[in-house]
Structures are given as structure tokens and as C-alpha cells.
Amino acid sequence: MSDTSETNYLDNGKGFASWFYTVDHKRIGVMYLIAIGIFFIIAAFASFLIRWEHLTPGEGIVSAHTYNVLFTLHGSMMVFLFIVPGVAASFGNFLIPLMIGAKDVIFPKLNLYSFWLYLLGASIFLFALAAPADTGWTFYTPYSIDSGTNVIMITLGVFVLGFSSILTGINFIVTMHKLRAPGMTWDRLPLFCWAAYATSLLQVLATPVVGITLLLLIGERYFGLGFFDPAKGGDPVMFQHFFWFYSHPAVYIMILPAMGIISEVMPVFSRKPIFGYKAIAYSSLAIALISFLVWGHHMFVSGQSKLVNIIFSVITYAVAVPTAIKVFNWLWTMYKGSIELSTAMLYSLAFIFLFTIGGLTGLFLGALAVDVHLHDTYFVVAHMHYVMIGGTVFGFFAALHFWYPKMWGVMFDEFKAKIAFVLIFIGFNVIFFPQFILGTLGMPRRYFNYAPEFESLHQLSTYGTWIIGIGFILMMYTLLKPIPGEAGPNPYKSLSLEWSMDSPPPPLNFDKIPTITEPVYNYGTKIEKES
Amino acid sequence: MGIYDITTKIIKSIAYPSEMVPPITEEDDGHHHFDPETEHSSMKLGMWLFLATELLLFGGLFAAYAIYRAKYPEMFMNGSKSLDVVLGTVNTVILIFSSLTVAIAVKAIQENRIKLVKIMLWITIVCAAIFAVNKYFEYSYKFGKGIFPGTDIFYSIYFAATGVHMLHVFIGMAVLGVLLNKVYKGKYSKDNFTAIEVGGLYWHLVDLIWIYLFPLLYLVG
Amino acid sequence: MNWLPTSASTFAEGVDFTLWLVTIISVISCILIGFLLIYFVIKYKRKTDNDPTPAITHDSFLETLWTIIPTILCIVIFIYGYVYYDQYTVTPKNAVEINVTGKRWIWTFDYSNGKKTLNDLYVPINQPIRLVMQSDDVLHSFFVPAFRVKQDLMGNRYTYINFTATKEGVYDLYCTEYCGASHSNMLGKVHVLSKAEYALWEDGSAKKVKSASADIPLDKLGEQLYTKNGCVACHSIDGSDGIAPSWKALFGAKRAFTDGTSAVADENYIKESILYPTEKLVTGYGPIMPSYKGLLDDKEITAIIEYIKTLK
Amino acid sequence: MDNHGSYKSLINIWLLLMFFTVITVGAAQFDFGVWNVPIALIIASFKAGVVALHFMHLKHEDSMTWVFATYPLFLLFLLIAFTATDMFTRVAN
Q1: pTM of the model
Q2: D3-31 pLDDT, tens per residue?
Q3: In terms of CA atoms, which chain C residue is nearest residue B1?
Q4: Residue B31 pLDDT > 50, yes or no?
Q5: Chain D residues in contact with chain A using a Cβ-Cβ cutoff of 8 Å
Q6: pLDDT digits 0-9 by tens, A418-451
Q7: Higher model confidence: residue C253 or residue C205?
Q8: Looking at residues A168-179, what average pLDDT do you find?
Q9: Which residues pair with C191 in a beta bridge?
Q10: Is the CB of residue A449 less than 8 Å away from at least one CB of chain D?
Q11: What is the largest CA-CA distance in chain A?
């Protein structure tokens, strides 16, 4: 499809080796995209089975043990193989150098090694499926010490994946410090880069703690170290502290890049500068810092002391405020704009709405008295999925559609994509909204069986998976079958740097490093009062 | 908005030293290189970030130590007394000495004194090896007395912390070995010494961790 | 709309109040944001490809507004959450203690009067209760939706729950900390009795409360006991293999034990296994079953044996 | 570029480190009760600071490196502080 004289990054070399040994950040980004896509499909399939099992109370299609394995597989694969590396490693790799005006990331080889480590970790993880773990993705002790399944392999896989994540984070941070084009000052940096920067900070500083925790868990199983085993004088709550010290910031590793994507999409389709650039940029950083201070809100009923519960509850509400600010900023970006409802824009709007619900239901869980009732029920499941799917996955899909012309140089069928969006949006809400009610009614999570009075809500939830499933398939079909013709360098008339070059971009991005002279979201006519 | 302006100032004061963005030099072998000054400062920044990671990796062990020491003071007292202070002290001296030799090597390569670099790196690697051998004797002595990881929480922390540290010593030896090999091949000079400096940083971290582990495990009995 | 379980403890009111408060705040915010989204999309729809747009980059008043309002709401919600939580964590002076043990996948309750029950907790109405809980193996969590109380149990350390039941009835008890294959079968019932009924139960005439169905056939009674006493958590009745031997075709079968001996599963063997479960272990299974000595009387044991006989 | 200090100053630093090693081993022979750990940690921190500042040239690094070198210490403090606060404020309510 490339009839321009210059080669683009996709044509630059053919065959397996030209991809597998590439140091081109765009190709590495695309490889991540494919890999996480595959894991997303596997993990999503596990969730279809889980919901199917819940169509009726009692044993349906799988046994209790298989059910436990399925939710462990779904959770750990979605978290460690899809959503944590997901947006940051795929779109981060593809976009950061393009956006800051660099020819590549600062350590191109390290970038490739990170990808290989990701593959290695994923292989170990998949290898563990020979006797898949049934511990849940949280690996809580002493159950994970006790379980007869292959916990060691799966945690080893996560450990290796963690290193991949750390190295990618280091690479991005240093890239953004050292390789910004002349004139690309911090206050002109695209907000996706700000978000990626905050994400990378979290990856570098939070991941090692879960690394040592999982290493100690392995030691616990091999040698009986006893740190987390009450039978040996250890404390299982300490494991939870260490685990959530990583896993709460990890929630922001998952959501921040999606927030960055929304901050890119909204101005383009509203033809307006992003509202409150500084507020969004700094609230990303603020979230990156405060998110280390709230992990204990996952442990309000775990036997944590009352004092610490109260402290964590206070700080949890502190982290809610920057998030709320972001939502209003995105909203106000549309005010007096010229709004085009493209597929990417639809996903972004859905993101704002669903993420709002996800965030607001977080207020329930942060309130100590209410959390005592709602902890470990379906309410938590629904809340978390509203943030992770309604937030991250919808943001991810927005990115898939938004940068599609840039990545592949062609366009997709907007009409079909919008139908897919409607199905996914409806299906998602049908799955997870009933779960809020199930939760307040007291339906515990991770339950193979349930009481008959919950049947109708469970069935509704299961029907939702069928709708969303059709939506996914239609979306994949739409994206895999581009419409004829070329996209051109800038079909959306965006002003950011990655749209200033050919689509797909040439192998080295820029012939000559550009000099940036104006803010990135310079849309609209200048009638505004200068700050 | 006052708060944003203040934040801007803070962030600018931190971030702007690295504001000067370098040009990119010619592309000879298919992909490009950044100019040496950028590469030098980037690799150092990257290594410092990695050291931050390593520190937090040990952080979990330090946290476990702090908490269980407060919870089981008797056990830690007795366990600590049973460790061999002489061997521990010898290892401390060895490791600090090896830190010195690496620092000298980093200095020497900047003055193009290749021979001195070789000697210093050799000494460092030998020191690391002696450290490992001492640890081997220490471990086997413990095993002989029927003390294993899991005997009690103190010994679990002792074995876990020194074991993970030992792993870093081995990684450090491997890194220094590769560097030494490249020095023999003449790859480094006063214009190209970043790798040695960065490898040295890693070795200093191994020393830093030990500086804390030694008193916490062996001395405060 | 019925989206909350029955409210049957003093703690439930506070929780429900906070829940309603947050719900109202959330619904209003959600409607506001949803409305603005749709309104903006319709009002500012792109008409031509060159619509003029103003370059508004910020607005101090609005930004201050939407920083301050969420902050205030957050503070209010925190305070309510804290106040009611504080009430819940303080033990009243006249509280009656009951010991709770969680073990895969059975709840055991030990009362101060020497009584012991499995999976059924009996409490008098309007009496502050303090549960002193511990786990025998992995983590469990004690959750009674009607009381809005929940607390994890772990080994080697006691955790506590306080509640005062305010409404007679039978309420569900769940384990909410994942604990393995039969996690969703680790269920129980909390019986809130009037003072008079409780006194009756305390007197030892527990059976009057326990089974009003003294007339039903033995094997049917056995079937009830099978679910009620937690046998269901480990022993299947369809022949599928779990953590313990299946009851299907158990009666009359030859059992091989870990010590090399073997026996035929007759009435006496089954009774012995119920009372002294770890004496003779069938090969391939661990010593995990608790003794039912003192928990089941002879008639109930006979009923269970009759029930097993029906499982061919 | 990073041509800081001389060989002699490096050796002096090393001698200082050796001196403090002797001090810390010596101090361990006496029992200061609750002060045992603080004393050991203060000496260790001093040694670690010397290694970082001089051997690792932190003295000559820019502010960004300082941030990345010290922020993990803050996080480590958080991890220990919160976990320990939990462990030692658990009361039977």
C-alpha cells in the first residue's frame, strides 16, 4: 500500500527476524500490541466461561476447582500480561519518541530486551498452566503456600514480567528527560507523555517490592521461610501489605496511560485546547506520588489495626480529588468546541462516563463503615471492572482506533466500528451494573456457587458477556479489514507531532529533528485571556 | 491558580537542568546514535533509576527485618549472636576495599591508564570471589549445625537477605567480568568510559546493601 | 427497590445511612456528568470542517470550584464512614463472648456455657455479642450481610467482631476470603432468637430449635444434616473426587487405610469415622475432618448412615 | 567530564570507611540497650552516604539524579512505617 518513495517502518525489512531483532520502537510497540492482544483474548475467554458457569447456581459447565483456576487465570493474565504492560508498553513505545520528536527511545536495545523478557515471563506463566494455580491473582498466604498447584511457576513468571516492566519504565523516563526535541519543554509535552512518565515512575519504584514479595513467597514454598505463614510465627497481613504496596500503584500503572490517551483524543475531536493542561499534567504526577500512600484501603477487614485503617481511609479520599479534577477538565474541553463523534471519540466519552461510575463507587469502598459491608463482594468486582474495562480498556480501544491510521497507514470502517462500540458499551454495562446490586445484597466474590435468590441478576450479567463478545468480534473484524485507500499523514487534523509525518511513519521518524515553537494543543482562535 | 504555579516552579527547578536536548549524530549502521554526552548522562540516570529499583527490592527484606525484630527481640538477639562476627567483618572489609578499587578503576579509565584499570578490575573480581567463598563456608557451617532457612524467622531473614545479596554479588562479578574482557579488547578509553562508570555504580550498590546488612544481622545482637 | 439485605443489627443503620448518602451523591454526580456529556455533544456538534472554536485553556473559577466541591464531599463521606466504623469497633461492656473457629470449610462456634455448634450461630436478640475468631488453616472471613459486619480470620491471632442483633430471624453467614475448592460452600446461618427462645436453647433443648421435623424419615433427616453440618463442603454425593472421599457407593465398599489395614464400610465404621475421623485415614486423604463427637447425637448419626445407604 | 577527586582522596575516603567499620564493630561489643540498633544504623548510614557521595559521585550529579536516589528511601520509609504502625497498634477492640 505504500507508493510513496520513502519506506515506512512496516516495509523496512521483511520476515520474522526483521521484527524479532528490531530495535525500532514502533515495531516493538506493534509486537507488544499483538502479544497483549493475544493474552487479552485468552483471558477474556476465561471470563466468558466464568460467567457461563454462573448462569445457574450449582455446578454448570465446570467443577469448583476448575472455576477457581479460571478466575485465577483470568485475573492474573489480565493484570500481569495484558493491562500492566498493555497500554504503556505498546502505545507508549509507539508514541513517546514520535510525540517528543526523537528518533527512538534512549536505549533501543534495552527496549528490545525488555520485550524479550516480557515474552520469557509470559512463557513461564503459560508453562505454569500445566498445573494452573488456584490462588486468585492476589496470591494471599497462607493459601498460596498451601495450595497443591503450580504457584511457584506462575509467581516466577510474574517476577520476570516485573523486570520487563521496570526496564521499560527506566527507558521511558530517561527518554523523556534526555531526548525531547528542541523547544519541547515540559509544559509543551503532550499529556500522553506526562501520563507515561508518571506510569514509568510507578513501574520503576513499585514493581521491585512485589518482586521481592513473590520471591519470598517462592522461598516460603521451597524452604518454609515463615514470614507470611502464621503457623511459623509469620504474619499473613504483612504479605498483604507488601503485595498492595505494589498492587495499588499498579492500579494507576493501568489507568494513567488510558487517561493520557483520553487527554489526546478529546482536544482533537473537539478542536479545542485541552482544558487545564497543567492541572491534568500535575495531577498525573500527584497521583503517582499519592498512590503509594493508600494501599491499606484494600485491607480494611483483613485484621489491620484500626488506626491504620483510618489513616488509609483519609489518604484514599485525598487521591480521589485529583481524579475528579481530571474528569471535569476532559468534560470542559468539549465546551464550545466543534465535536466530531468518531469511534475514538465515542470510546473516550464512554471512558469519561464509565470511569466516573468507577470512581464514584470507589467512594463507597473508601468509607470505612461501608467497606466493611462491601469488601470482597461483587460490588468490589464491579467497581474494579468499571475502572479497568470502563477506564483502561475503553481508553485502549480509543487508542486503537485513534492511532490506527498512523500505525497502519489505512483507515477502518467507521460505521462498523461504531456498531461494535455500541455493543461493547451496552454489553459491558449489562454485565457489571447488576453486580453492584449483587454486591450490596451480600454476594461474596470468588464464589463457585450462589444462593437461588441471586439467580436473575447473575443471569442478566451472563447475558451481557454474550453481547460484549459479539461486540469484540465485530471490532476485531473491523480493525483487521481496513477499507481501501490511504489514510494520509493527518486525517483528523491533529496538531501533535506524531501526525506531522507520513503514515505509517518512516523508520527513523524524523529526517531532521523538529524545533517546537508552540504549545501542543494549539487549537481554536486566540481570543482567550492570557494567564 | 497559585498552587499550580508553585508546582510549576518546583518541577521546573528539578527538570530543567536536562533541558538542553542534543542533536543526533550520523546514522552509519542502520540505526542511529546519540551524541556521547547524552549517552553518558542518560546511562547514568538510567543506572540510578535501576539502583532505586534494587534498593526497593531489598526494601521488602529490610521491612520484614524491622517488623520481626521488634516482634521477636529474643529470637533476633540469640540468632545474631550465633553468627560469625569475624567472618562478617572480614567480608565487610573486603567489600569496601573492592568498592575502592572500582572507584579507582573508574578514575583511571578517565585518564586512559588502561593497565591500572585492568589491575583494579581484577582485584575487584578477586575480592568478590573471596567474599563468595567466605559466604560458602559460613553457610555450610550453619547447615552443619542444622540451621537452614526456615529454622526460625531470624535465620529465614538471614538466609534470604544474604542470599539475595549474594545473587547481586554474582551478577556484579559477571558485569565486571564482561567489562574487563572489553578493556582487554581495547574498547574503552578516556572518551568512552560510561560502561565502566555505570558498572561501577552497580558494584557500589552491592557494597551499600552490605553496609546495612552487616550490622543489622551480625552486630546488633 | 430491594438492593440492600434486611437490616438486623444496630450497626446496619449507620452503614445504610452512609450508603444512601454516597449513593445520592454518586447518582447526582453521574447524572450531571452524563447530562453535560450528551448536551455538549449535541450542542457543539461539528457543522463544517472549519468551525471556529475559542482557545479556552483554563478558568480559575471553575477549576477552584471543582477542586473544592469534591474535597468537601470527600471529607463528609469520610467522616460518616469513620463515625459508624468507630461505633462498630468499640466493644460494649456487657458483651457476651462467643468463640469462632474457621476451618476449611466449616464454622465452629463455642459458647461460654459449654455448648458447641457447627455452621449455626445462635444469639439472643438485643444482646451485644463479641465474636472472638481464629482460623485453623488459611484465611477466612466472617460475613453476615444482614448485620453489615465482616472480618478476616487467620491463624495464630485472634480477630473480633461486635454486633447487636435487633431482629429475630435466620440470616445467611458467608466466608468471604477465598479459601479453596469449597469456599462457596463454607456457609452458615445466624439464628437470632428471642430471649425466651434463647433460654430454651441454652437449657440444652437445642433440638427443639434445631429440628422441628422430628417426624421425617431418617434418610431425609440425614440429607438435611448433610448440608447443615458442613459435610457437603468436602464429601460429594455424586462420586466426584474432592478433598475427602465421596459418599456415593460408600456403604459396603472396602476401604484401604494409610496404615496398610483395610475394612468394609459398615454402620460401625461410619459411626467411628464421624466421631474419631483421624483414627483411620483412607489412603490419599489427609487428617482434616473435625470430630463430630458431642455435636451429633446417636439418632442423627444413624440418620446420616441411612442417608449414605441411599447413595448407591 | 566526571574527573572528580584524586586517587589520594579516594584512598582517604576508604580509610574513613575502614575507620567507621572498626567503630561499628567496636560499638557492638558494648550493650547500649535500645540504642544498639540506632547507633548501628547511624554509622551504617554515614558509611553509605560517604560511598554514595564520593565513590558514586552523587556529589556531582544533577538534581534529577538526587531525586531518583532519595525518593526510594522515602518509599522504603513509608513501607516500613505503615506496616509497622499496623503491627504495633493492633489492639483487641
Answers
A1: 0.90
A2: 556 889 999 999 999 999 999 999 888 88
A3: C60
A4: no
A5: 64, 71-72, 75, 78-79, 82-83, 85-87, 89-91, 93
A6: 999 999 999 999 999 999 999 999 999 999 999 9
A7: C253
A8: 95
A9: C122, C170
A10: no
A11: 70
Quick check: A253 and A161 in contact, CB under 8 A? no
The DSSP secondary structure of A193-230, one letter per residue, reads: HHHHHHHHHHHHHHHHHHHHHHHHHHHHHHH---TT-G
How many C-alpha atoms does A352 have within 13 Å on its Cβ side? Answer: 28
Mind spelling out the 3-state secondary structure of chain B? CHHHHHHHHHHHHHHHHHCCCCCECCCCCCCCCECHHHHHHHHHHHHHHHHHHHHHHHHHHHHHHHHHHHHCHHHHHHHHHCCCHHHHHHHHHHHHHHHHHHHHHHHHHHCCCHHHHHHHHHHHHHHHHHHHHHHHHHHHHHHHCCCCCCCCHHHHHHHHHHHHHHHHHHHHHHHHHHHHHHHHCCCCECCECHHHHHHHHHHHHHHHHHHHHHHHHHHCC
pLDDT band of residue B6 (cuts 50, 70, 90) is low
Q: How many beta-carbon pairs under 8 angstroms link C with D?
A: 7
Q: What's the CATH class of domain C218-310?
A: mainly alpha
pLDDT band at A15 (very low <50, low <70, confident <90, very high): confident
| Residues A278, A281, A282, A284, Cα dihedral to 10° | 160
Structural fold of domain C96-210: Immunoglobulin-like (2.60.40)
A residues 212-241 near B, CB within 8 Å?
212-213, 215-216, 219, 223-227, 232-235, 238
How buried is residue C2: exposed, middle or buried, by Cβ count under 10 Å (0-12/13-18/19+)? exposed
Q: Topology of domain B73-221, per CATH?
A: Four Helix Bundle (Hemerythrin (Met), subunit A) (1.20.120)
Tens digits of residue pLDDT in B112-165: 999 999 999 999 999 999 999 999 999 999 999 999 998 899 999 999 999 999
Question: What pLDDT was estimated at residue C206?
Answer: 52
Percent helix / strand / coil, chain A, rounded to 5: 70, 0, 30
CA atoms of B195 and C94, how far apart (whole Å) = 71
- The pLDDT assigned to C214 comes to 60
All structural domains of chain A: 28-500 (1.20.210.10)
Enumerate the residues of chain A whose CB falls inside 8 A of the CB of residue C47. 338
Contact D7, B113 (CB under 8 A): no
Place of cell 458483651: C95
> Distance between CA atoms of C93 and C127, rounded to whole angstroms?
11
Residue ranges covered by each domain of chain D: 1-60, 61-93
Identify the pLDDT of residue B22.
36
Which residues of D fall within a CB distance of 8 Å from B104? 7, 10
Contact residues, chain B, for C60 at CB < 8 Å: 1
List the domain boundaries for chain C.
96-210, 218-310
What is the DSSP secondary-structure string of A460-504? HHHHHHHHHHHHHHHHHHHHHSPBSS---S-TT---SGGGGS-SS
* Chain A residues 179-208 with CB within 8 Å of chain B: 179-182, 184-187, 204-208
Chain A residues in contact with B67 by the CB 8 A cut-off are: 235, 238
